[in-house]
Amino acid sequence: xxxxxxxxxxxxxxxxxxxxxxxxxxxxxxxxxxxxxxxxxxxxxxxxxxxxxxxxxxxxxxxxxxxxxxxxxxxxxxxxxxxxxxxxxxxxxxxxxxxxxxxxxxxxxxxxxxxxxxxxxxxxxxxxxxxxxxxxxxxxxxxxxx
Length: 146
Ligand SMILES: [Zn+2]
What we know:
It contains 5 helices and 7 strands. The chain is an alpha+beta fold. It has a 5-stranded antiparallel β-sheet with strand order 1-2-3-4-5. The protein has a two-stranded antiparallel sheet with strand order 6-7.
């Protein structure tokens, strides 16, 4: 019950995984609906009848890839994927606009997000390029920092 994504978010994905053709790691499936909210000029993109996946490796240039090993790279998205960027102003939480820096500096923001997601006020499935809840992406610094 404490995990927001199982109580509130409607982003349950089939746990199908596929290997990123660039870094060789397995990643979770992402919905077409999510992808269309983040890729550049989605009207020019040809969707195929296959699974698509989200690569969250910060060092890998691939954001989305298909079962056919087709890739959509960082340059092909209109969203700056915070999890892939070391930039402090890139977003960790897309639903509430929490930057990477804010997420690190203010661990209490995470509590706010947990509360809001528990009441269903989040839009991870479209706002977050991963299509999933951002809470796992909070990389909080040592507690002593504040
Ligand atoms: Zn990758």
